[in-house]
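Why does residue order matter? Because the sequence determines the fold. Keep that principle in mind as you read this record.
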Amino acid sequence: FPLSKNVKVSSAIWFVEGLLQGLGWAPCAVLLKKWFPPSQMGRWWSVLSSSGNIAGAVSPFLFTSLSTVWNWKFNFYLFGSATVFVGVSVFIHHERFPL
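Structure:
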């Protein structure tokens, strides 16, 4: 987003990003099914879904407050870098099955 100066390009990037996020739900369902018994599946699915909603509710306030300190483009790089760091950490330390 910070590199785009055109609204149509930003919208296309946002659309593709949403599609890619949607692809993550199926692996999450498989992971929950493998890690937890059926009696707990609903609880952990609600935790997963709620965490996404909470992050979606909190991040605009966090982004706005950080934008008063830094440039808004820097915040995109900051949040993107943090996302890549967490993703790589999960990829490295993730266990296929819980202990």
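The chain has four helices and no strands.
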